[in-house]
Design goal:
The structure holds two protein chains of two kinds.
Chain A lengths: L1 H17 L1 H27 L9 E6 L3 H10 L3 E5 L3 H9 L5 E7 L5 E8 L5 H22 L20 H35 L1 H7 L4 H29 L7 H25 L3 H21 L4 H9 L5 H28 L4
Chain B lengths: L1 H29 L2 H26 L12 E5 L5 H7 L3 E5 L11 E8 L2 E9 L3 H23 L4 H4 L2 E8 L2 H6 L7 H13 L8 H17 L6 H9 L5 H4 L2 H18 L10 E3 L37 H29 L5 H5 L4 H27 L3 H24 L3 H24 L11 H10 L5 H24 L3 H4 L5 H11 L22 H15 L1 H15 L4 H29 L7 H34 L6 H5 L5 H26 L3 H26 L1
Parallel strand pairs in B: 1-2, 1-3
Antiparallel strand pairs in B: 3-4, 5-6
The chains are: A alpha/beta, B mainly alpha.
């Protein structure tokens, strides 16, 4: 054990000397800040009403305009003004008195057709179209209820809308998993670098003369890489907690995260020991991690989803099972790789 | 004259031959037998992954829903709402009798029922943000469920009583002003291009076709698997961009026929010219379908012909996803390139190359060339695959160059592979977000053009791009790439390559290379190149000013990133912090090379020299800033047509010329004073430099606050 700890301490001292761990934390901070920037931007685009009470003024005409006015009364973001004929509505649109026009006419089939005109390629177009969609969907719902007798299965009544933060789901299902898993990949990459660097500089030969076995060297390097991961994740979770985002099941999340780190570090060590140089090793490692992680995320109950459910406090026995499975998987994978390396050596 | 030209040509050919030789050597090393094995291993990984995912698809266990089952809904399994909950991935049903609000359920749903069917619904949510979010999810689930119910209805008129035809038109007055993105000339150009593709419709106004592509491309993002008229049109219009995604072009074509009819039916009144266009939601019957994943699109539940639910805002989702594909290979490429450069530096492996007659520039150019070639080839392949044109390849090129340049600097500075990994990751993250994030706002604001990727999105949407827009988008990135290579090349020499120094000190060394001596008693080296033509007295000061001017692109990027990072904070905190951060970034850019100059003995450590270099640095910054302001005004004039760019000028029209000159020169005074302040600190030692820099930042921030409050 002592020699393993020595190797691990040496690794961490190297990291400290280069101060690169600070850069890693900086990158993560940047990603966290940038994702919130991103989500605010995206939300403002999909749901402009969520940011400020934008009101869209619609100039309407046609024989079904009265119903459209009814619908507008139910939609907070849109108001409808009636005009004599389509030409008058269009004139209002042209002189900027309205954001859009809607010409609603009843057709012979018993339906209503609405011809909507929205301004082309201006900054507000997206906002206007989103509000128009809300208005028209409400209109559709009202018209549908009137025709409910002709339907074999009437639509279900929709519950009243309530206020909610558009960032809530994003924070738990994207931001927290990203912040928790970034240190995992960084640790794996560190192990690849650490082993290929020893090979490249020829210092591994020196280590072999020292009274340690290959297995102990790998153990030490892996130990250092795994040890620095949960601290970073914990830092993020605490920061979020301070920021008013409660995170549940923190110990379980850290356990799952440590298991994944061990798994990834094991894979990284295996690749680094087998690959000819750092370029090949890093390339293979990137591909392997993409594949592993992408595959695990795509399969139901993957680690990303498990972390989201743990953090949001919706965990059930299936989530616990996921954690147990990953812990077992990590142990098996790491021991397997270690055995392989002890048998075949590094870089041979 | 002719002899000199001939000599120059000979030199260029000799130089390019040398570069070519290095490039061949680098390429042969990278594609040796060993790396072929690596590639095979990577392919094996991918094959395994494909197998796993394929098996997952077959057993129905695959879904990229990161939000699967995050909200628990207590509901009676017999309730009609149970189906809606079942179909929404983010909701999981808990039997009503076991559900306790707050512990095992976040939401409890009870429906009021009469003999005819459900009459109402009562939702009780836990009183937390989670409960609210769960209630909103449930509402969306019910909406989507209703859309599905209706789609299965035999009576179509009753199920979808409202048919919407959405059309984008320019306002009569707005057209005259021409105040928005490419509405006047840009629009015409793109119409012309499209008229060529479907010339049979030439009689009915080409403007229509233009915005149809526009709208169709956006519809593609959200309506996965719906295939209404709009989508199919876009598949056609953007030269098969979408077809390549799903591979059932036959279906799309048939849908296109429908859409085409629809245009002719409704397009009678299309007499407004400009950017008008009908966007039919007409008669697609779900035959086609786009393979673009429905990320975020599920909420719209769009599965209907021409119903309001199928309206999608003009958001270029599909094009954005495709544009992102261009960035993926860059990350791998940068990693390989960084490894190769750093490998030269370990165990002095690159030394034999340095003692050959090859110049460092030739070595680096040769080493970089294969990677540039691979980048271009990969970009071209992706462009062919996703339906982009030459514009896409040209626009991605500066991004690739910047990736490689930043990696090169990182590899020259880094002490170990570990350090290089962090540098590479940082470069990838920063550049990817710099390129990708503005592109999200492509159709929203012209400022999106600061990223070259926006051009790719335009290209995928089939819109024409003016030369001005192209230069505006790619110029800064290209300049940044050149400057970064220059920075790294300065220390591509024996004494720096094979020494282990902290990154910061290497950075100072790299800056000093670009400086010339100022003041008495400092060692001088003979000047070469352009520097030799500048009189000796001012040579050092010109170098300082020039170096400061070169930092401008990076200053802008840093300020943009600061804005992005501080965006999430409340305004009362973010504005003051931002003003200080911006001041700090600018002060640092003006003084860090001065510090390097004093530290490495290029400048004499006297106050007179400090003042001189400080003023020179301030002047350089001022000139560069004004030059970019002019470029921006020119670039943005084209975009905004004067509205935004000259708004601020109009505000000062009433002031006297003297005040105007004062306002114009005030920044010069500020930059000169603060840079001199930092320089005086820098000439002593590190501590005084840090203190002086802090003082200069405060002065600058105070000035910023003054300007902001003056402008109201």
């Amino acid at each position: 054990m002592g020699s393993r700890l020595t190797v691990a301490r040496r690794e961490i001292a190297g990291l400290r000397a280069e101060k690169t761990i600070l850069l890693a934390i900086g990158i993560q901070l940047f990603i966290a800040a940038f994702s919130s920037f991103l989500v605010v931007g995206l939300v403002s685009m999909y749901d402009p009403g969520a940011l400020d009470g934008a009101e869209v003024e619609v100039a309407a005409a046609g024989d079904a305009v009265a119903d459209l006015e009814h619908a507008a009364a139910e939609v907070p973001g849109a108001s409808v003004t009636r005009y004599e004929d389509p030409a008058a509505a269009r004139a209002a649109f042209d002189r900027n008195a309205a954001d859009a026009t809607a010409i609603a006419t009843r057709d012979e089939g018993g339906g209503v057709s609405v011809a909507v005109t929205a301004p082309d390629a201006t900054v507000e177009t997206t906002v206007i179209v989103v509000q128009l969609r809300d208005l028209l969907r409400t209109y559709e719902r009202i018209e549908r209820v009137e025709r409910a007798d002709s339907l074999s299965r009437p639509p279900l009544p929709v519950p009243d809308s309530t206020g909610t933060s558009p960032y809530f789901t994003f924070t738990y299902t994207v931001l927290i998993p990203v912040l928790v898993f970034l240190p995992v990949f960084i640790s794996g990459s560190l192990v690849v670098d650490s082993i290929t660097e020893e090979l490249d500089r020829g210092t591994l030969e020196l280590l072999r003369v020292a009274p340690v076995t290959i297995g102990e060297i790998v153990d030490g390097k892996a130990l250092a890489a795994v040890a620095i991961a949960p601290g970073q994740a914990l830092l993020w979770l605490l920061l979020l907690e301070l920021n008013g985002t409660p995170v549940a099941n923190v110990p379980t999340i850290l356990l799952l995260m440590t298991a994944l780190t061990t798994l990834v570090v094991g894979v990284a060590a295996g690749i680094a020991a087998a690959a000819p140089d750092r370029r090949a090793a890093q390339f293979l490692y990137s591909v392997a991690v993409l594949v592993l992680f992408g595959g695990a995320t795509a399969v139901a109950g993957g680690p990303t989803n498990a972390v989201a459910r743990l953090a949001i406090d919706s965990a059930d026995p299936a989530t616990t099972l996921t954690v147990v499975v990953y812990v077992a998987l990590a142990a098996v994978a790491y021991l397997g790789v270690r055995r392989l390396i002890t048998a075949n050596g590094i870089g041979e | 004259m002719i002899r000199r030209a001939a000599r120059r040509v000979r030199r260029v050919t000799r130089c390019s031959r040398r570069v070519g030789r290095v490039a061949r050597w680098e390429a042969s090393r990278a594609t040796g037998g060993v790396d072929r094995r690596t590639l095979l291993a990577a392919l094996a990984f991918l094959a395994v992954a494909g197998g796993v995912v394929g098996a997952g698809v077959a057993t129905d266990a695959v879904g990229l829903d990161v939000d699967r089952d995050v909200y628990r809904v207590g509901i009676d399994p017999a309730s009609p709402y149970a189906d809606a909950v079942e179909a929404e991935p983010s909701l999981t049903a808990v039997p009503a009798e076991e559900a306790t609000l707050g512990s095992t359920a976040d939401l409890i749903v009870r429906d009021g029922r009469s003999d005819g069917g459900p009459t109402g619904v009562f939702v009780r949510a836990v009183d937390t943000p989670k409960g609210e979010a769960a209630a909103a999810s449930f509402r969306e689930a019910v909406d989507a469920h209703n859309e599905r119910l209706m789609a299965a209805e035999p009576n179509e008129t009753a199920a979808f009583p409202v048919t919407v035809t959405l059309r984008y038109a320019a306002r009569g007055s707005a057209l005259a002003d021409g105040e928005t993105v490419g509405e006047g000339d840009g629009g015409d150009a793109r119409d012309g291009g499209l008229a060529a593709t479907d010339g049979d419709e030439s009689g009915d106004g080409s403007g229509r076709d233009g915005s149809e592509t526009d709208g169709g491309g956006t519809a593609g993002g959200d309506d996965s698997g719906t295939g209404d008229g709009g989508d199919d049109d876009s598949g056609d219009g953007t030269a098969g961009g979408d077809d390549s995604g799903d591979g059932d072009g036959g279906d799309d074509d048939s849908g296109d026929g429908d859409g085409g009819d629809d245009i002719d039916d409704g397009g009678g009144g299309d007499d407004d010219g400009g950017g008008g266009g009908w966007w039919p939601f007409g008669n697609g019957d779900g035959s086609g379908g786009l393979a673009v994943p429905s990320i975020g699109g599920g909420a719209f539940g769009a599965n209907s012909a021409g119903s309001p639910g199928s309206i999608t805002p003009p958001f270029p989702f599909a094009s954005l996803v495709l544009a992102f594909a261009f960035l993926v290979p860059m990350n791998f490429l940068a990693q390989a390139y960084g490894s190769s450069v750093l490998a030269e530096r370990t165990n002095r492996r690159g030394e034999p190359l340095l003692v050959t007659p090859l110049s460092p520039t030739e070595i680096v150019a040769g080493k970089t060339l294969p990677y540039v070639a691979v980048a271009v080839a990969a970009t071209a392949l992706i462009a062919i695959a996703v339906g982009g044109g030459a514009v896409s390849v040209l626009a991605v090129f500066p991004i690739a160059a910047t990736f490689l340049a930043a990696t090169f600097v990182g590899a020259v500075f880094a002490r170990s592979f570990k350090e290089l990994t962090f540098v590479t990751v940082a470069v990838s993250v920063l550049l990817t977000s710099y390129a990708f994030v503005p592109a999200i706002f492509t159709n929203v604001t012209p400022v999106a053009l600061i990223s070259p990727l926006t051009l790719v999105v335009f290209d995928l949407q089939g819109e024409a791009i003016s030369i001005g827009e192209f230069l505006f988008a790619t110029g800064p990135t290209a300049i940044a790439a050149v400057l970064l290579f220059g920075l790294g090349l300065g220390v591509y020499r024996e004494e720096d390559l094979f020494t282990q120094k902290p990154v910061a000190r290497k950075f100072l060394d790299a800056l000093v290379v670009r400086l010339s001596p100022v003041g008495e008693g400092v060692r001088e080296s003979p000047a070469t190149g352009i520097a030799a033509r500048i009189p000796r007295r001012v040579r050092g000061l010109v170098a300082v000013a020039f170096l400061t001017a070169c930092t401008i692109p990076f200053v802008f990027v840093a300020e943009l990133l600061a804005v992005a990072v501080l965006f999430a904070l409340p305004v009362t905190v973010s504005i003051p912090v931002l003003l200080v951060v911006i001041a700090f970034v600018e002060e640092l850019a003006k003084s860090v090379h001065l510090y390097a100059g004093f530290e490495r003995g290029v400048f004499a450590r006297t106050d007179r020299v400090a003042l001189a270099v400080g003023l020179a640095s301030g002047l350089g910054f001022f000139l560069a800033e004004k030059a970019t302001a002019v470029v921006q005004a020119v670039g943005l004039t084209e975009l905004y047509v004067g509205r935004a760019a000259f708004g601020s000028v109009a505000g000062v029209a009433g002031l006297s010329p003297l005040v105007l000159v004062g306002l114009f020169l005030a920044p010069l005074a500020l930059h000169g004073v603060t840079a001199s302040l930092s320089a005086v600190g820098a000439r002593r030692n590190r501590t005084t430099y840090v203190l002086a820099l802090a003082a200069a930042t405060l002065v600058h921030a105070a000035y910023n606050v003054g300007v902001v409050s003056l402008h109201g």
